[in-house]
Design brief:
This protein is of the alpha+beta class and 53 residues long. It has one domain. Helix content is 30%, strand content 19%. The protein is built from two helices and two strands, in the order βαβα. A two-stranded parallel ribbon has the order 1-2.
């Protein structure tokens, strides 16, 4: 289901834990995403899982 197609979401704390899980779910649901966090997680994190635009 694409409930968030063409919508933008802002996630704080999106590099780990619940913020990361929420960010991934919103991406799966079709949202555009703006995410902040303290750590740049490349392997296995949000940055590594975002498809190229």
């Amino acid at each position: 289901m694409q409930r968030f197609t063409n919508r933008t979401a802002l996630i704080t704390g999106g590099t780990s834990g619940m913020g990361l899980a929420t960010a991934r779910r919103l991406l799966d649901e079709g949202a555009y995403l703006v995410s902040t966090g303290q750590d740049l997680v490349v392997d296995g994190g949000l940055v590594g899982s975002v498809p190229a635009a």
